Amino acid sequence: MLLIDCPYCGKRPEVEFHCGGEAHIARPEMPTAVEDADWGSFLYYRTNPKGLHAERWLHGHGCGRWFNALRDTVSDAFVATYEMGKPRPDRDEATASSPSNA
Amino acid sequence: MRRFSLTSLLKEAANGHQGWERQWRAPEPKKEYDVIIVGGGGHGLATAYYLASVHGVTNVAVLERGWIGGGNTGRNTTIVRSNYLFDESAGLYEHAMKLWEGLSQELNYNVMFSQRGVLMLAHNHHDVISFKRHVYANRLNGIDNEWLSPEECKAYCPPLSISPDLRYPVLGGALQRRGGTARHDAVAWGYARGADSRGVDIIQNCEVLGLKRHPDGSVAGVETSRGTIGAKRVGVVAAGHTGVVMSRFGLRMPVESVPLQALVSEPVKPVFPCVVMSNAVHAYISQSDKGELVIGAGTDQYVSYSQQGGIHIINHTLDAICELFPQFGRMRMLRSWGGIVDVTPDRSPILGKTPIEGLFVNCGWGTGGFKATPGSGHVFAHTLATGEPHKINAPFSLDRFRTGRLIDEAAAAAVAH
Fold this sequence. Notes:
- The complex is a heterodimer.
- By secondary structure, chain A is α+β, with helices and mostly antiparallel strands.
- Chain A has a single domain, classed as Folate-binding superfamily (Folate-binding fold, 2-Layer Sandwich).
- Helix content of chain A is 16%, strand content 31%.
- Chain A has a 4-stranded antiparallel β-sheet. A two-stranded antiparallel sheet of chain A has the order 1-2.
- Chain B is α/β, with parallel strands linked by helices.
- Chain B is 29% helix and 24% strand.
- Chain B has helices at 6-14, 42-53, 87-101, 103-107, 125-140, 150-156, 184-197, 242-248, 311-324, 373-386, 400-403, 409-413, and strands at 32-38, 60-63, 79-80, 118-122, 146-148, 172-176, 180-181, 201-203, 208-213, 219-224, 227-236, 256-267, 275-278, 283-287, 292-299, 333-343, 350-353, 359-363.
- In chain B, the strands form 3 sheets. In chain B, strands 1, 2, 8, 9, 10, 11, 17 and 18 form an 8-stranded mixed β-sheet that branches. An 8-stranded mixed β-sheet of chain B has the order 5-6-4-13-14-15-12-16. Chain B has a two-stranded antiparallel ribbon with strand order 3-7.
- In chain B, strand 14 and strand 15 form a beta hairpin.
- In chain B, helix 2 (42-53) runs parallel beside helix 7 and helix 2 (42-53) packs across helix 10.
- In chain B, 55% of the residues are buried.
- The model of chain B has no long low-confidence stretch (mean pLDDT 95).
- The A-B interface holds A 1-2, 14-15, 18-19, 21-22, 36-37, 40-41, 43-50, 53, 55, 71, 73-76 and B 241, 243-244, 247, 252-257, 301-306, 310-312, 344-345, 401-404.
- Chain A: It holds the Pfam family SoxD.
- Chain A: This is Sarcosine oxidase subunit delta.
- Chain A: It comes from Jiella pelagia.
- Chain B: Pfam families: DAO (PF01266).
């Protein structure tokens, strides 16, 4: 089980959290204006990287708040957590900001 | 290829088993092939086998990063069934089931296919309605599936507890008698041996690093850790690593890779006659011919390539097993492991063309690909040989994520895959 560092509550066990999938996927402003292929891409296509992955997490059985996290999908280690709406930190910055999880 | 028979067994028994030859060669890659298959698991090897045996395409290479059958083929819980709800899925999985039924004979290799029955338990009203709907839909498609009362479930599988005071009482079950298990490694080895004897090159320790394309964009070959190899057509059958391979080819895919876990107990005498699945409490269990209880757990909730999952996932499964089968409460578990499965949004596989001319993909089998191995290989071989999908795999196109014509087993079925 992962130990996840909620930016609001601190380290808590994974069972308190729900993973909301890949982060930073913007819904098209005007769904009626996009082509089928672009809409399909928004709905279904994912980066699925082997390495650093930006994803959304919900601390459902805790503070109830969403946040973003950078996680290494090979080791499952969390590299950083950051607020919803903030841009994805680059790797050096992320590693530096959260050395305990690196 | 030296055939296995009673005569050859007796001969080798007298000879101290010193005369058996290698089951497949370890060839150096040629400069060019008609078809290259990326991924030497059951599905990839079956594809190569049917390309050679059905379509006469023998200038084929299977490129495997590690060793054949070392990924999900060697990690699954070996359950075979075809009781899927929708017509498209029923067609695909039943096609596989029919091939399973003659597979040992066809390959001259004992895949230990055992039709001991797959019993899916219903624990609540929704399960009962859903499973009965499955039973009727399956029968309309000519697939055997029958509804059993709790007492009939108990008679079919005596270790099962149908006590009404269970937390999730058994309200009945759907039984597919033709379902069962097979020996997973033997499936990979049997197909490898059959393909190799027909001229297919199985090249292990060969990682695919990129795609070579003609000026018009079509496939020219692949870059590998053992050099560039030319090909007219390339089929990617890389299971959990499909996304990784396709990203090297510059394509995004509608799949996400997650760990799926399984575990086995210490071996005991025959005690468990069939396969039991319980989707509501999430557990599958069967007993291997070695005597180990083989138990399948669920997936983790996040993307991972770690080949290990959370301990709470297998704890949850074992809680359910101990409740349904109280006599297993004191058994010790020997090993647990994870495999990386590629899951599509509709939980149905993708078999067909890609946006790149000459590049085909067979992926997205998620948590239930083993059962489909022969059928998947058979129709994908047709696709690679002719350039067009077989009518069985035509609905499973990549394009369905654009058109919206999904095959939504996940939402409609209430079943694990």
